[in-house]
Amino acid sequence: MKIIYASRTGNVEAFVDKLGLKDVMKIENGSETADADFVLITYTDGYGEVPPEVEDFLASNYDKLRAVAASGDKSYGEAYCLAADVIADTYGVPILAKFEFDGTEEDVSGFLEALEQLK
Predict the structure, then answer these.
(1) Residue 119 pLDDT > 90, yes or no?
(2) Which of 56, 3, 4 is nearest to 31 (CA)?
(3) Would the pTM of this model clear 0.90, i.e. be above it?
(4) 74-102, pLDDT tens digit by residue?
């Protein structure tokens, strides 16, 4: 399954790199088009918001979205990785993972296991 991600500070991009998957695409401005079913990995913006470029991307590609994961900072408390919850609730998809910054090896293996079960 394709992995589509958004990364502002590089944390999500580093996490995606650790996955070692080949079918990946980065959201640059939200005008991109998904050519296959995908799992979205995003950062959480502000105090728990979905990044604007991700909202734009999903507006025209939501029909291929199969699951979501998010990066965040635990110091934000209740807003930690809240973008994943918002997207999951809005589009009716499962959350595969929530991880801090660029994730641990445990986060990577957990995501890959969840991704395998999704297929």
Answers:
(1) no
(2) 56
(3) yes
(4) 999 999 999 999 999 999 999 999 999 99
Quickly tell me which residue has 């470029």 as its tokens: 53
When pLDDT is cut at 50, 70 and 90, the band that residue 105 belongs to is very high
How many residues in the chain?
Answer: 119
Instruction: Give the number of C-alpha atoms closer than 13 A to the C-alpha of residue 70, restricted to the C-beta side.
Output: 23
Cα 43 to Cα 82: distance, rounded to the nearest angstrom: 9
CA distance 17 to 29: 20
Contact 31/52 with Cβ under 8 angstroms?
no
**In sequence order, which residues have a C-beta less than 8 Å from that of residue 51 and are 6 or more positions away?**
6, 8, 42, 43, 44, 45, 83
Q: What angle do CA 42, 56, 12 make, to 5 degrees?
A: 15
